[in-house]
Design a protein that fits this description.
CATH superfamily of the largest domain: Nonribosomal peptide synthetase, condensation domain
Shape: globular
Biased composition (Gly residues): 472-488
Number of domains: 2
InterPro entries: CAT-like_dom_sf, Condensation_dom
Protein name: Condensation domain-containing protein
CATH architecture of the largest domain: 2-Layer Sandwich
Number of strands: 15
Organism: Streptomyces similanensis
Domain Condensation: 11-454
Helix content: 25-40%
Largest sheet: 6 strands, mixed
Structural class: alpha+beta
CATH class of the largest domain: Alpha Beta
Distance between the termini: 55 Å
Oligomer: single chain
Amino acid sequence: MAHTDPEDGGLPLSVGQEGLWLLHQLAPDSSTYHLAGGVRMEPVPDPGILARAVDAVTERHSMLRSVYAGTEAGPRRRVLPPGRTGRLTVREAPGADDEELRRLIDAEVAAPFDLGGEGPFRAVLINRGPDAVVLVVTHHIATDALSQWLLWRDLLTAFAAAAEGADPALKPPVTDYGHFVAAERTLLESSRGARQAEFWQEQCAGSQAAEFPTDRPRPRTPSYQGASLVRRLPDDLSERIRRTAADREVSPFAVALGALQALVNRWTGMRDFLIACPASVRRGAAREDVGYYVNPVLVRAEVGRADTLGEVIDRAADRLRQATARATYPYPLVAQAAPSGGPLYRISMTMVATDRFGGGFAVAAAGVPLRIAGHSFTYLEIPHLEGQCDISLEVTSDANGLSLALRYDTALFERDTVERLFDQYVRFLTTAVEDAGRPVGRVPLTGGDDRRALLALGAGPAAAGTTDAGTAGVGTAGAGSGHPGGAS
């Protein structure tokens, strides 16, 4: 089933994987491209039973027991036999409180991967006595967001079987990642690939990466250090976003993206800019396979302050449809062909819909415990993928509503700035579903209490005349951000 290169016995990587391999070589100790998920288990599972379940998962998914190495022909992947890598690690932490537990989790997520030796996967059981945390950490070169949920589905299925004394072996997938790599190569050599390349050149021509003003000058080299702000939207707002999307015949993600595009315009004055939206490129049987099946697509925004929020949302939906129809063309090749030589995006946004995962995960992602083999499993939100770009916004849709994870580069932004950005984004979302006919320039950036405090600081006739549309969005202008804050 595997596609082996006869020259050196290794498997070729996809274009996206090659990019991640290069980033790993540049910053091997960085956790920027680590994905992580965890559950709290009560009572503590038998480590032997859990280890058998982990082994069953790694045996099913060859990407989890692959190692990577550079060769004269480029980076290659080699699949190890089951049991050679990816075994369960047990950490004893008796009596640890929640703060200490969080530190232990963070340390496991941050620990670098030796992609050439241990591979891109590790499973850890942190046992503190009355309960335990099961943690799964992977490198992005081998997995994506859907892969993480597939891992958990398979892990819990195998655990339930092993706990009942049955064989936890899982049925092998009907495809493997080698088929995707081969299909990508076929695309790039075809006339269809050439047409997609032309589309992306036109999409980017004359535009630039959206970029919020920063609190500190941009360093010469990326820091690959980040943090996250995770909050749940009020249930009524989540429902109104879904209802607005249905009424406008667009996706909820288009509503969320349009609100972000409008906020970028208000913060920066930028009229024409690009935001990256990681898109799934899974097709057919690959929907059940673990691998790096994701590709950032660039969505161009052309926004003026006289445009209404509804108009911005509708244009975002149209551009999203065009971009996702051509999502299989690898982003690294788009960036390579860019005439500017600079990054094509500094802000990204994605949406994860947990109802696609089955197995009760839409409910679990909302914090409702699952009951399996006499154990309670409660999903834990674990920050990851931090520091990839200036700002990344992930919207998670679960059974009960929407939650937002706003990740940011800590070398560029203070926490206070990001919290203000988050609050203003929610304000734009709220206005979009309550008054879609409102012009972008008339959406208030501050609430009543904030506005009165700002006016009190101004303490003068000029301050007293400040309007919602003119209220500044940021408290500190970033040296080196390079973008004006004037009206558009």
